User: Which sequence fits this backbone?
């Protein structure tokens, strides 16, 4: 039996799954934590990789790494970090994003060049911040890697040239996903001089070997690995509800949204992964539970005790600003409060607002990918909430599939590793996970009320 190792080097931890290459069955799982913060010494990820893969690596015929997108790992000529890595959620480069967009000729030109309108998460903006705020360090930068590139290179035999894939590269802000080529001019403009960038590998291509001879796949970004792990196909929309909310789908054509609502990423199979992201997601429920003084089980019970539409109570849940729609300075707005409003109404309105926000993201992705969603799959920590499960199909207006909980980023990396063993044009066809089907009568009036508040909110005092 051939075994493959999939590694998820996320913001919080490294997870490693040893998997049967034939059918994707997980044989063993191990994990190791990462330091907290939005800037981290990337060498900590290497220690976590070593810990999580200990005892698994020597049993694997191939491996691949899925990692957090966008982070900046800037290395000197000796391959050592010039500073701590800036992660995707470090927003100090927001002004740099505006500057780079303007230099490229505006949002439309930016989207046409790299598939997305830059925001602070993109690597290019962090390079510009480094140039402007730490010029001595910037001058020492010889090469720039993404987090998964850095871990993959650590896994490879000494002397291996750095490598990456088009999926993770498409989140840098200096990569053209349509031609699968670096825009070295944009990397140079961001940093102030041209850094060495990793070679781009084709999907399924073996990049290198370990010292023991196991093959190493190109690896990819976490969202791309999750799509691969779940076996997404065109017409599928994946909704992830965690700290942020994400709706993504598979497209055979590139996306360039000048509004910035949908990012035109590449995927890990040679296609594209258009994605819309909300800033406010599970935190909407966390805040409502705190305000009501209940735990999440009681919040769900209250929400399910209230009628659809929460007695006319509507929430615009943009507590920390929002990205879909793009309202960075927005705040939460409640309307429809009366003397008859109950605690159950307050709980219900919060759950409905979360799901309406995600429904907007689904609509945006489907429209830009020009697809009618065939299946909607829902994952993430907030899907454990019974009210989210019960109301999701009602708000989204169609059945929702709930896959079993699992390490889908690591599983996608493992599937890529297995792909390197076959030499086929497509990844191995592992059996899909058995999903729970969630169904409910649609409640379009809830979305109509939410949309009315959403569209009126900019005019509110």
Assistant:
């Amino acid at each position: 039996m051939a075994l493959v190792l999939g590694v998820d080097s996320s913001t919080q931890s490294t997870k490693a799954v040893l998997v049967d290459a034939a059918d994707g069955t997980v044989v063993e799982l191990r994990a190791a934590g990462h330091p907290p913060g939005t800037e981290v010494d990337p060498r900590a990820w290497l220690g976590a990789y070593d810990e999580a893969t200990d005892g698994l690596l020597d049993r694997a015929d191939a491996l691949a790494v899925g990692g957090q997108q966008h982070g900046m790992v800037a290395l000197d000529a000796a391959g050592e970090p010039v500073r701590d890595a800036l992660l995707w959620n470090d927003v100090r480069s927001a002004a740099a994003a505006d500057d780079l967009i303007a230099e490229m000729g505006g949002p439309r030109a930016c989207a046409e060049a790299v598939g997305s309108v830059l925001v602070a998460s993109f690597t290019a903006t962090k390079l510009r911040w480094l140039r402007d705020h730490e010029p001595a360090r910037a001058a020492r930068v010889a090469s720039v890697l993404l987090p998964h590139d850095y871990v993959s290179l650590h896994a490879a035999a000494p002397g291996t040239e750095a490598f990456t894939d088009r999926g993770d590269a498409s989140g840098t802000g200096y990569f053209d996903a349509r031609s699968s080529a670096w825009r070295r001019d944009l990397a140079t403009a961001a940093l102030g001089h041209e850094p060495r960038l990793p070679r781009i590998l084709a999907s399924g291509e073996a990049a290198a070997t370990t010292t023991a001879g196991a093959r190493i796949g190109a690896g990819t970004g976490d969202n791309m690995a999750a799509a691969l792990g779940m076996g997404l196909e065109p017409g599928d929309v994946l909704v992830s509800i965690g700290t942020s909310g994400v709706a993504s789908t598979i497209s055979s054509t590139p996306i360039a949204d000048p509004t910035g609502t949908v990012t035109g990423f590449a995927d890990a199979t040679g296609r594209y992964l258009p994605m819309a992201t909300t800033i406010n997601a599970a935190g909407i429920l966390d805040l409502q539970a705190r305000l009501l003084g209940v735990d999440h089980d009681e919040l769900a019970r209250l929400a399910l005790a209230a009628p659809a539409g929460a007695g006319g109570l509507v929430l615009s849940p943009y507590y920390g600003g929002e990205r879909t729609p793009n309202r960075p300075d927005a705040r939460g707005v409640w309307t429809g409060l009366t003397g008859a409003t109950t605690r159950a109404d307050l709980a219900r309105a919060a759950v409905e607002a979360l799901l309406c926000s995600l429904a907007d993201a689904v609509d945006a992705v489907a429209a830009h990918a020009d697809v009618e969603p065939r299946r909607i799959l829902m994952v993430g920590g907030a899907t454990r909430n019974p009210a989210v499960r019960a109301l999701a199909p009602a708000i989204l207006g169609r059945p929702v599939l709930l896959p079993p909980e699992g390490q889908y980023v690591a599983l996608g990396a493992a599937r890529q590793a297995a792909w390197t063993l076959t030499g086929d044009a497509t990844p191995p066809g592992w059996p899909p996970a058995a999903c729970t089907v969630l169904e409910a009568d649609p409640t379009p009036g809830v979305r109509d009320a939410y949309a009315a508040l959403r569209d009126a909110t900019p005019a509110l005092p």
